Amino acid sequence: MNEITRNKLLTDHFSKYITDHKRAFLEKVLDLRTRHITMVLEEIHQSQNASAVIRTCECMGIQDVHIIENEVKYSVNRRVVKGSYKWVDIIKYPKENGAVMCYQQLKKKGYKILVTDPSPDGISIHDVPVDERIALVMGNELNGTSDYALSQADMKVRIPMYGFTESMNISVSAAICLNTLVPKLHQSEIPWQLSSAEKDDIRLRWLRKMIKRPEIMEREFLKSIR
Questions:
Q1: What span, in angstroms and rounded, lies between the C-alpha atoms of 79 and 19?
Q2: What is the pLDDT of residue 94?
Q3: How far is the C-alpha of 226 from the C-alpha of 224, rounded, in Å?
Q4: DSSP character for 113?
Q5: What SS3 state is found at 140?
Q6: Distance between CA atoms of 38 and 194, rounded to whole angstroms?
Q7: CA-CA distance, 145 to 147, in Å (whole number)?
C-alpha cells in the first residue's frame, strides 16, 4: 500500500469520528487556507507577542509561520495563543545560520521578502501588490527588523501612522498587515488556495488533532486492513 492510499484510508476512517458539523467546518477552513502569504518572526523576545501573532495568522487563514531563533527560543504561551498553534505549521530556524536558511528557503519557494520597517522610504502596506508570494517579516520588540533581513528584502513596507509614537506592538502590526493583504488576495483572481495535495496532508493532520487517542486508532485500523 502506497502512502497516498494509506493516508486516504486513514482520512476516511478518522472522519467517521467527528460530527458532520465539524467535518463541514474543517473543509470550510481548509478552503480558505493559504501559503501565498506567510509570516516571518525574527527573535521575538516576549512569548505572548509571538503567540498573539500566531493566533492572528491562524484567524486570517495563514498556514505557515517561520520563527528565527537566535538568542531567544519561542515557547507557546497557551493563555494567549488559545490553541491556534495546533492548526498552523510553525517552522523554527535555530541560532546557527537560522536567518540565512530561512530567507534562502523562502526565496527558493518564490516568496518576495517584505520587511516591515517604520522608515518613510518604505511602501505603504495598503499599496503592496499580492500578485507574487509574500513573506512578511516582523522584527523584534527591541530593535525592529535586523540588518540582515533588510539586506534580503525585496521591499520595505510600513503601516501609515499619524501620531507621535514611532511603532505599534508587533501583534497589532501583524493584524493590520494581514487584514490589509488577505482580503485583497481573496478579491483577486490569483490561485492563492492550497493545492489538493497540501489539503490532503493538512486535513489528515487536523483530523488527528480532533479525535481522541489518534495513535492507537491509527495503529488498530492499519492492522485491520493488512
A1: 27
A2: 80
A3: 6
A4: E
A5: strand
A6: 13
A7: 7
Q: Please give the angle made by the CA atoms of 114, 120 and 121, to the nearest 5 degrees.
A: 60
Give the pLDDT mean for 86-109. 90
Q: For 60, what's the count of Cα atoms within 13 Å in the CB-facing half-sphere?
A: 28
CA distance 213 to 147: 46
Dist. CA 105–CA 10, nearest whole Å: 31
Q: Tell me which residue has cell 484567524.
A: 59
Model pLDDT, residue 80: 66
End-to-end distance of the chain based on CA atoms, in angstroms? 9
Here the cell at position 140 is 523584534
pLDDT of residue 219: 87
d(CA 150, CA 64): 21
